[in-house]
Amino acid sequence: MTTTQFAPDPRALCEIAVRVAAEAGEPAAEGQEGITVLHTKSSPTDVVTEMDRATEELIRSRLLAERPGDAFLGEESGDEDGTSRVRWIVDPIDGTVNYLYGSPDWGVAIAAEVDGQVVAAAVNLPRRGEMYRAVLGQGAFLGQERVTAPETVPLDRALVATGFGYFAERRVRQAQVLLDVIPRVRDIRRTGSAAVDLCALAVGRYNAYYERGLHSWDWSAPGLIASEAGLRVGGLRGGPPSNDMVIAARPELYEQIDRMLQDLGADSDG
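Structure (tokenized):
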């Protein structure tokens, strides 16, 4: 890939992400009623709807019309090379099963990477009327209001969000881990959308979040929003977020959850 001399302004990238996420959310919300499964991917629980494909194509066409040299990574269409320093990372409908069942807990997530680092993000939750955005080093916002995650709490007072994978064997293992987590925390929540969970964490609806089996389109946009709200977002053993594990919490609580999940072997399916 060739590079341009100057990196684009992350604020301008964020403005594009917000505008496109807002545009894409409208037809997705209108089309939720009566939607049907188009096909399944990795397992019967990993579904794709017609609207996933249509929404991603709308987002792709709008982004590349404004910035035709950029790379693009979409959950449904895969990786597309570009000639600039920017790559867009898109989950057109995060929480597809929720979407299929008429739940409001799904969102449109768009992140902009520059030279491999996420610098701008937008997450639109159309059915909840919430638009989140963030620029690296400049804070996270819900609408026009800056958001800051509440201060940390002890592990035994933490309300913790999590999720489950698509493969039966992994889900069984995640349930086993959860049996050991539940007695150590205040309670557990599971909405079925990483974007919803991480944004909810940013505004204090939970104290922590962890999940195994996510992909970069799941965490890139909401992860920046959470981190700009004052949360630590990473993986086990202090590493970066990965398919093995994503953890998000205030730094002190993050350390406790990291140690707990290590002790439980939560990054293993065996």
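The mean pLDDT is 93. Residues 148 and 229 are 4 Å apart (CA to CA).
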